# Entry
Amino acid sequence: MSDGSRVTVWQAKYVSRDGASVQCDVSNGDAVGRVTAQTMSEYRPSVGEQVWLLAVKPSDGAVKFYYTGPVVMPPPVGTVVSAASDFVTVDTDIGQVQATYNQGDTLSASQQVRLVWSDGPHVVGVLSTNPPPVQPPDPPAGSGPTSHVDTFTAVDAGSFSDGRWWQPQPWASNSTLGAWFIGSKVRDTLRGAPVTRIEMWVNLAYKFGSPPNIGTHSHDSKPGGAPAISNARPIAVTSGTWVELPVEFGQALSNGSASGIGLAHGGFNKFASLAADAQSGALRITSTY
# Structure
């Protein structure tokens, strides 16, 4: 790397692998398109998974990319929900996933299993016991709160219209309300910590007309009726990027007065389902605790 090189961190979507290189799609203020990145990690992402790239721009040459790993670290354990002949459904701290398993293994609901992730999740075995969670050590004496950037992914999402939840893409339209559901993850982690920034990952399947009206809701999971969305306001969105939301949204989530993000009409905007993009509606919150 020559003197004067500029290094930035990009988020990208993994496409394929070719030997020691990977192909990724990027979309940000510097570039849009498919790039080749040198591999710096043994982890093999799934097609469509969000990954981190280092973009190195020498003062006298073209940008070179280096793949460093996944945006969301995959969970090492989970609980079996159901098992079929080809896949097993496992509940994890990032939601339910479908994993392969070793031929000949017999898995059943409620078992805790160990997962490995490389080109998709795979169950390697049943845990002999359910180990209690390890509590983090206390901070060093004299240390105060520090700034943290936490990312929270949705566990469910969808659209409500005509008295029912009818499809998995969150929509903002004249006749439809949309929402992402995160459970209690934000308030359990931040516990009222002061928030200085909140961003939402936006992946659009369709965009037309006015910006969506984005607000907060207080539901940990899908309610039986329409979601009650508060403080909604029109916010311009761009696909394939983190969109900044009002700080008060993040503070409401931290305090527990809100549980997730919702869409209260506005234009005709279709956001990706969680099946199409597991990061759809993910929240990146900067806070101090």
User: Anything to note?
Assistant: The helical segments are 185-190, 247-255.
